Amino acid sequence: MATTIGGIDIEVSFTAIFVQIEGRTQILMTGLKVLLVAGTHGNEINGPWLFEQWEGRQELIDTHGLETVCVIGNPAAFEVGRRYLDRDLNRSFKKELLEASAHIDLEVDRANELLALYGPRGRVPSQLAIDIHSTTSAMGCSLVIYGRRPADLALASLIQARLGLPVYLHEGDASQKGFLVEAWPCGLVIEIGPVPQGVLDAIIVEQTRLAINACLESIAEVISGAVVYPERLIVHLHLGSMDFPRHPNGQLAACLHPSIVGNDWRPLEPNSPIFLRADGEIVHFCSEKSAVPVFINEAAYLEKNIAMSLTRREIWQVEESWIENLHEIVAINEIN
Class of 236-315 per CATH? Predict the structure, then answer.
């Protein structure tokens, strides 16, 4: 049986009950389950630590009546403090990997296990997934969504309106696919940094707690009918990724220029310095247009040949189709 925190393990013949307390609608019981995943990367320890504290102190995070299922994404990697053992779990949800007839590796097995347990048709079916991460980059507290799924955009708009978090929309990158939350009808990533891998940081834990609470409160308002959507969503649209200059043998030929380090989300203008070679030569940003860098110098991305990703800031109107899709996903919980 799955471990649930803040939920009610009881089967009822109706889908939801609401009460009014001081003018505020609260959901007492709901068939909707929200999957919260931490430790998808085994060396990101702040989310799992928060889960442990939350299990002992249920008042730590207000679930707003929602039933939450908390799991460690990659327990084997978490046990040894490594990002992964065989492959990145957060790139292991590709259809061709999941449907392979032969055993591939531990992370693909774990991806299939998570879907069998908590997927939309799993033993403990969940309709929404929140994947909790930390980063060595100065991303602050931010959200990541993949592609343009309407429900994801609607949920992101609610959280952004509540906390003002920047949203990185990743799409169009064939080398980076198979993300965990894409396997659920609706889902997004909470990404918080900077914090070194394997380091527990009270500030990161608190930011994670606040972000989770905002996610759950937003979802609860959708179910209760008390939700008010913002008029717009500000996204940073993925344009591509940039690698470090390298020697022919693959070794780094330059480091990031000091002027860009720690400046995630700040516009990078044409001809700005971006890399610094050992001999002092400066490599400039060769572009006719500005771009907004994210995940600058993320330690885990060195093996992926990514020094940073580049984005373009756009303002989108919140569309009715987004709202309708999110409501369709949670509609199973409305009273008939």
Answer: mainly beta
Distance of CA 189 to the CA centre of its chain: 1
How many Å separate Cα 275 from the centre of its chain?
A: 28
**Encoded tokens for 33:** 């389950």
Say what the pTM is: 0.89
- As its CATH architecture, domain 4-231+318-333 has 3-Layer(aba) Sandwich (3.40)
Closest among 210, 225, 323, 228 to 27, alpha carbons compared: 225
Dihedral pair phi/psi, residue 74, rounded to 5° = -125, 75
Q: By C-alpha distance, which of 82, 78, 74, 69 is closest to 110?
A: 74
Residues facing residue 62 across a β-bridge: none
Taking only the tens of pLDDT, the chain with its 336 residues reads 333 333 322 222 223 333 333 333 444 445 789 999 999 999 999 999 999 999 999 999 999 999 999 999 999 999 999 999 999 999 999 999 999 878 889 999 999 999 999 999 999 999 999 999 999 999 999 999 999 999 999 999 999 999 999 999 999 888 889 999 999 999 999 999 999 999 999 999 999 999 999 999 999 999 999 999 999 999 999 999 999 999 999 999 999 999 999 999 999 999 999 999 999 999 999 999 999 999 999 999 999 999 999 999 999 999 999 999 999 999 854 443
